[in-house]
Amino acid sequence: MLTHLDAQGRANMVDVTAKAVTAREAVAESRVRMRPETLELIQAGGHPKGDVLAVARIAGIQAAKKTSDLIPLCHPLMLTSVKVELTPQPPDAVHIQARCKLAGQTGVEMEALTAVSVAALTLYDMCKAVDKGMVIEQTRLLHKSGGKSGDYHLQEPGA
Question: Where in the sequence is the domain holding 100, given as residue range(s)?
């Protein structure tokens, strides 16, 4: 069993030395709800801070690469691919999805979740002057593959 506690009950980084290197992938999502006028401003490219979606996408990619600096006990990973997509969902939201991949000894779930979280926070930061009431919601893992624990696919309630 993997644990972040050592024999004395102290927090430590999990030792993955004996784990096999496998292809691993994780997909996470988040959503930012906002006033319809805010989304219209973003889509029209008229935001005074520039291309809000492009900046949030880059922020998400950078955050995935720096996850171990942000999350205690998280392994530093050599990601082979990070994709972050921000999709306007009229009338009042932006959907964010991140896909992280690597060949390694530990998974990339935290990197995908960090990517969507920071992209959402960046979107909020860039638009807060016009809409402080934005809501970041539904940040969750959708899928993960690879590793000893096998694959995971989010099952929606009632599905």
Answer: 28-143
- Find out whether 30 and 56 touch, Cβ atoms under 8 Å: no
pLDDT tens digits along 27-71: 999 999 999 999 999 999 877 788 999 999 999 999 999 999 999
Q: What is the mean pLDDT of residues 13-35?
A: 88
Active-site position among 6, 51, 69, 125: 125
Full-model pTM = 0.90
125 catalytic per annotation:
yes
Q: How far apart are CA 96 and CA 114, in angstroms?
A: 12
Q: Is 25 labelled a binding residue? A: no
- 74 belongs to an annotated ligand binding site: yes
Integer-rounded Cα Rg, in Å, for the chain is 18
Q: Establish if 131 belongs to a structural domain.
A: yes
Task: Give the containing element (helix H, strand E) for 48.
Answer: none
pLDDT of 86 > 90? The answer is yes
The contacts of residue 152 (CB under 8 Å, 6+ apart) are: 141, 143, 144, 145
The CATH number of whichever domain residue 48 belongs to comes to: 3.30.70.640
156 lies in some domain:
no
